Amino acid sequence: MTGRSLRLGGRPGGEFDRLRAIFATLGAAGRDLGDDCALLPIGGRTLAISIDLSLEGEHFRTDWLSFREIGWRATAAAMSDLAAEGAQPVGVLVSLGVPSNVQRAAGSASPAVQIMSGVGAAARSVGASVLGGDLVRSARYLVDACVLGLAARPVRRSGARPGDGLWVTGRLGGAGLALAALRAGRRLAPALRRRFARPVARIDAGRWLARRGARAMIDISDGLAGDAGHLAAASGVGIAIELARVPCWPGVTPLAAAQSGEEYELLVAMPRRFGTAGARAFRRATGLPLTPIGRCATGRGLRMTDDGRLITPPPGFDHFPAR
Asked: What is the pTM of this model?
């Protein structure tokens, strides 16, 4: 619940209706909520702050991930919000909840130590430090990561304009494919496991796009379709996506790729002048593909087509689905 815009997407009765109710209750104290990060001007730069909670059974399972992977994954998820603002990470503070009756093998580090080892590794991978935190007894494991970064020109969700091109970094669908395999009890190939267990916050990509005039940006945590809807709502534009253009992880259909959450790639609206030459320069600089998948237009909401046929966009992730 951070940032600038109150115009969130989501289905009636779900997570985003609950957020709107919270924002309304806060009144003037919550007028700037709704973007990827809170943004505080400091001198000639902007401090970007975000917080992201990972809860056992909701965001991770200890039989699927090592404790070190749990710490990495929770930290990378929070750092991804900084990437979406075009910010350079500075540090992370972590509140950690650990059950009191944990048994560990002789000679092994405690789960808390292992989790924080993963937090530290993820922070170092983007040039940040662990700044502090808190440790509490909890019925379930939880990792609550608050990240701080600096941006010369933060990119909000609310800047897209009609005529802007819509682009996405990397390939989508790997996280969803891994989740389906884990639920089925299947072993993951090494590359797919890395995608799921050690996601990479696209910090360099976000900063590059911000410097090249990105109008609006969001990280893909709730699924492409869901997050495109959030960006459209925040910017007050319509968004049209051609499903066949969506870059997919091997073995994933475009529709599944559009629904897969926790991808942590970036969805960005770029000015009309940005084209294939810009995408080639992006790949040289970051090693990632940048794929055009649609456009921003006048109107509202998300329009998705498949081979020219209008389809219903798949739902994004919702912690409180409507009943």
From this structure: 0.87
- Compute the distance between CA of residue 105 and CA of residue 119 in angstroms, rounded to an integer: 21
Q: Which residues pair with 296 in a beta bridge?
A: 239
- DSSP bridge partners of 294: 166, 241
Q: Are 321 and 16 in contact (CB under 8 A)?
A: no
Q: What pLDDT is recorded for position 36? A: 75
144: nearest Cα among 242, 55, 263:
55
Strand, coil or helix: what is 113?
helix
Assess whether pLDDT exceeds 70 at residue 258. yes
Whose tokens are 């090249």? That residue is: 212
Q: Indicate the burial class of 6 (C-beta count within 10 angstroms; 0-12, 13-18, 19 or more).
A: middle
Tokens (6 digits) for 236: 């007050």
SS3 per-residue string spanning 51-83: EEEEEECCCECCCCCCHHHHHHHHHHHHHHHHH
